[in-house]
Design goal:
Number of helices: 6
Strand content: 25-35%
Bound molecules: zinc ion
Helix content: 25-40%
Order of helices and strands: HEEHHEHEEEHEEH
Largest sheet: 6 strands, mixed
Structural class: alpha/beta
Distance between the termini: 25 Å
Length: about 190
């Protein structure tokens, strides 16, 4: 879905260059999804695009892992006209707070902005399932695992990317002498 990527590039949410990721690995691409959702109508549009995949599936509630999933999760819930809750960490452990709860048998769609390893989606799914609700699917705007992330339930993404990463000593961008961009300076 090239228009999604074009929107990300236009919003400065997908940068091309030479970056050091939080993992320490080097990469020619950097993703800052929050920027792509800054305009509420853009967020609503991504929400509708994800929701389209789940019409007729009788989703009761959308749940997202905080913080990254909150804006897009809300937008998907709005498009499906169902409630929205989010999970967040308390003393390092993902949980439901703020009076949020899910009921036994409730059908939940878990939504995140970007899936990289699927870790936060899996944590969110566990919180929901530990409370007896049923996670029927997971979704994200972008899958940067090249389709590899396994979260244990069917998964939908608007865009799938294979973002190359290199260890510092084997980085072809370093070898070509390309200056390192600090994404933080663009935020
Ligand atoms: Zn490099």
């Amino acid at each position: 879905m090239n228009d999604v990527l074009n929107h990300f590039r236009g919003a400065g949410a997908l940068l091309d260059g030479h970056f050091i990721l939080s993992s320490g690995l080097h990469s020619p691409q950097y993703l800052q999804c929050a920027l792509a959702l800054k305009d509420p109508e853009d967020a609503a549009q991504f929400g509708r695009a994800i929701a389209e995949h789940f019409t007729g599936q009788e989703i009761d509630t959308v749940a997202s892992p905080a913080i990254g999933g909150i804006v897009i999760g809300f937008a998907v819930a709005q498009a499906l006209n169902v409630p929205f809750v989010w999970t967040e960490r308390e003393n390092g452990v993902m949980t439901l707070r703020r009076g949020f709860s899910v009921a036994e048998g409730e059908k939940i769609l878990v939504v995140e902005d970007v899936i990289t390893t699927g870790g936060s989606t899996r944590e969110c799914i566990k919180v929901i399932e530990d409370r007896g609700a049923q996670v029927v699917a997971a979704a994200s705007i972008i899958d940067r695992s090249d389709g590899q992330a396994d979260v244990g339930v069917p998964r939908v993404s608007l865009v799938t990317l294979a973002v190359p990463t290199y260890s510092a000593d084997l980085c072809p961008l370093c070898e070509r002498g390309i200056a390192i961009t600090k994404p933080g300076s663009r935020q």
